[in-house]
Amino acid sequence: MTETTQKDPSRLDAAELMSRDELEALQLARLKDTVAYAYNRVPLYKRKFDEAGVHPQDLKELSDLAQFPYTTKEDLRQEYPFGMFAVPQNEVVRIHASSGTTGRPTVVGYTQNDLDVWASLVARSMRASGVRPGMKVHVAYGYGLFTGGLGAHYGAEALGTTVIPMSGGQTEKQIQLIQDFKPDAIMCTPTYLLTIMDAMVHRGIDPRATSLKFAVCGAEPWTEEMRKELEQGLGVDACDIYGLSEVMGPGVAGESVETKDGNHIWEDHFRPEIIDPFDHTTVLPDGHKGELVFTSLTKEALPIIRYRTKDLSSLLPGTARPSMRRMARITGRSDDMIILRGVNMFPSQIEEIALRIPALSPHFQLELTRSGRMDAMTIHIEPRENTTPEDRAAAALALKSQIKIHVGSSCTIDVVEPGSLERSNGKLRRIFDNRPKP
User: Percent of the chain scored above 70 by pLDDT?
Assistant: First the structure.
């Protein structure tokens, strides 16, 4: 499980130039190795495979992967802290973990080779997004146990850029360093980039006049309308980067600046599937929307077999990287889905509709309440600066109407004062569920 070092980081990796047949042959060979490796080294996988009545030798073609059981976040929590590791502790050179705000954190580990592969894939993603060796890259993802900051940092170094390791928060200092250090690219969540942009405007700084040319944004779902907001406001090319700690971290997939049509999954290292999120036994064909599932193909410290991400997407043919399938833009997470009086919706749908109404800003929160047996949702949303009371009232009516038409649910619209809602310093919280707990 080794990755050939790319001598010229500005060139495409060999795997990006493979035919689909060559890529699938590589996937099958690596998948057989990984499934056997996990079975022999991780007690949880031996137990799960045995209980499901499958053995690594049953995997003879790629479609056979569907016979194997899923891995969930709960599996990682139950094996806390190091039960999922496939190598001795002295071979683990770094540990990351989730925040653990909803229970035990999920812990992931990396060998040195894992870190090298991770850095190379983040570099590949950044290169696809337009970043080139020699550029300066401002990293505003949080550093620490969260994989975003260090993942972006080492990927940017592997690409051959100059890294500015700012981390998240301290928005005024972010602006100062962008002005003084003149970075070419910034890496952060899309909502935090929006926060930086708005803060520049409030300080009388033209965001389009900075040195920034590229934004590589991830760690939360965002819409095409948000991309347009950031690109027009900052004068940058904004591309997505996808990943999650349990699978690797950022860099599982990356978006091409030439096409901006969704993340190409780096399938030489990850085998994706789409499953029906309600009927978990069904693997859906490409083009059908469902829950993303990933199997790692080269990880050493923590191989992951059929990990259920809860992210909702679909698999599409490759474009900028023809052999690598794309994942459609994440519409939300199955565990972030709001069910309001029998109607399913996601915050990204509200964002998409709101940003089509000129008087409304991207800053909003969803508050869920219950009166008797009936659930209700109030959308607290800021208007654009310098809008009149009449503009705000008309925008509220338009938003309420468009949500009813396109989502199918009624809600209350509360247009609040500009700047009154909480701003993102990393991942933004959109949903405030104030319904009584069962």
Answer: 96
Q: What's the CA gap between 166 and 358, in Å, rounded?
A: 33
- Residue 36 host element (H or E): helix 20-41
Q: Which residues pair with 374 in a beta bridge?
A: 371
Residue 8's pLDDT band, with cuts at 50, 70 and 90, is low
Measured CA to CA, the distance from residue 432 to residue 349 in angstroms comes to: 16
Are 71 and 106 contacting, i.e. CB atoms less than 8 angstroms apart?
no
In angstroms, the CA 125 to CA 269 distance is 13
CA distance 80 to 68: 22
**The pLDDT of residue 405:** 92
Q: What is the DSSP pairing of strand 214-218 with strand 237-244?
A: parallel
Question: Residue 9's pLDDT is what?
Answer: 61
Burial (CB count <10 Å: 0-12, 13-18, 19+), residue 134? exposed
Closest CA to 244 of 39, 76, 66: 76
Q: Which residues, 6+ apart, have CB-to-CB distance to 410 below 8 Å?
A: 400, 403, 404
Cα gap 340→63, rounded to integer Å: 37
Residues belonging to the chain:
438
Neighbouring residues of 146: CB distance < 8 A, sequence distance ≥ 6: 96, 99, 245, 426
DSSP H stretches of helix in 219-375: 224-234, 347-354
- Amino acid at residue number 185: A
Q: Name the 3-class secondary structure at 232.
A: helix
Of 405, 378, 255, 401, the C-alpha closest to 321 is 255
Q: What are the residues facing 139 on neighbouring strands?
A: 165, 187
Can you give the pTM of this predicted structure?
0.86
Question: Nearest 5°: phi and psi at 180?
Answer: -85, -40
